[in-house]
Amino acid sequence: MQKNDVVTVTIEDIGVNGEGIGKVDGYTLFIKDGIIGDTVEAKIMKAKKNYGYARLMNIIEPSSYRVEPRCPIARRCGGCQLQEMSYEKQLEFKNNKVRGNLERIGSFAPKFLEQVMEPIVGMDEPFYYRNKAQFPFGADKEGNPITGFYAGRTHNIIANTDCAIGVPVNKEILGLILAFMKKYKVSAYDEKTGKGLIRHALIRYGFTTKEIMVCLVINGTLIPHSEELIEELRQVEGMTSISISRNIKRTNVIMGDSYKVLWGQGFITDYIGKTKYQISPLSFYQVNPVQTEKLYGLALEYAGLQGDETVWDLYCGIGTISLFLAQKAKKVYGVEIVPQAIEDARNNAKINRITNAEFYVGKAEEVLPEYYRKYGEEHPGEEAHADVIVVDPPRKGCEESVLKTMAEMKPEKIVYVSCDSATLARDLKYLRGKGYEVEKGRAVDLFPMTVHCEICVEMCRKK
Ligand code: SAH
Asked: How far is the CA of 393 from the centre of ligand 1 (A)?
């Protein structure tokens, strides 16, 4: 296989970045925009020894799973990868991806997985589900301000204010900001030169409260004529919080380190189930509230709490899962690396009148082993014990020292919430070696139209 060769290939799978995967005489090709079941003509752009990248030239026979994308710019935009594949097929694909990784990386037998894995939880309406969006600003060729999304793997902005997975009110807000910029000649930030003012607009929407937050990230300390912009934005129904965040660094990090309220309050409120959360511009909060409730409900169900348990929630963020668990447990300890998140967690406990949750700032791989060691020192002949340990790590999964201490604390149950089935599989394999076995597991689709999903797994200590 060589560069510029044109081949006919059938797409059999989707890769980690959403590209179609097909084989020609055993040679693997990655083809962007190909979906499972398509037979396509593709031109090789880059040929490595065992695999290559090809460009989709022509769909010879469209897959029966192919659908018209909701969004006209779906192919160019880097936000979604699967809009051209039916939602049912997306769910099947994600379910298979999770099981495949559990088999391949976790060494689980397919028959066993058949018994313990429940079917993926999808959405009834898989569009307009995101409660948060961060829109970059730039300029078109004529110098007019634009906003939208980055094209896949680039920082070129594709103008679009009408994203099909964001909330509809985004369009109205972005329209007001763009009109304001034009009227007062307020410049957009240019990554190449480091000049210009408006970098990003963060918009958050509370699905249950209908409260809206707008935070403008700026390359400076103030926006000229900002009172005019505030006057416009506060007319939007539900507007609760308008702020700016200063970010003068030449980095890909979107938000600055702090924010300043221009109008209203510094946060919006939202509920997941009966639990109330205050979310500031810098807080981490799951982007799909409808599915988050199902995911946390599952974590709670798997934890099987009776009311007298001691529970640890590692990688707890703003305490979302911890506060869910605290209502059914004797005591919950949350551990999280970001100090502001722990501030939010403590505040969220307070506004929900939850008094049996305690939070530690630090790395899970330091806090937990340290707690275990100290406990042993202070209670000779005893070991620190937990009844249930919940973990929800970032994509890279848990460090071995965390898993080791978890097993040493001999919880009856471990509930593992994961956004990456490959590292999940690796970590489950380790825990199986320490006397735990998977009881149940289930994927929940928090990110329709993208390749991602969450997985929740219950492990029990073998007798
Ligand atoms: N359970 C929370 C957050 C999960 S996201 C929720 O559902 O809202 C993963 C969290 O792990 C993030 O908040 C991140 O800041 C935190 N984190 C990352 N590395 C960590 C580490 N080594 N120790 C503790 N927390 C960590």
From this structure: 5
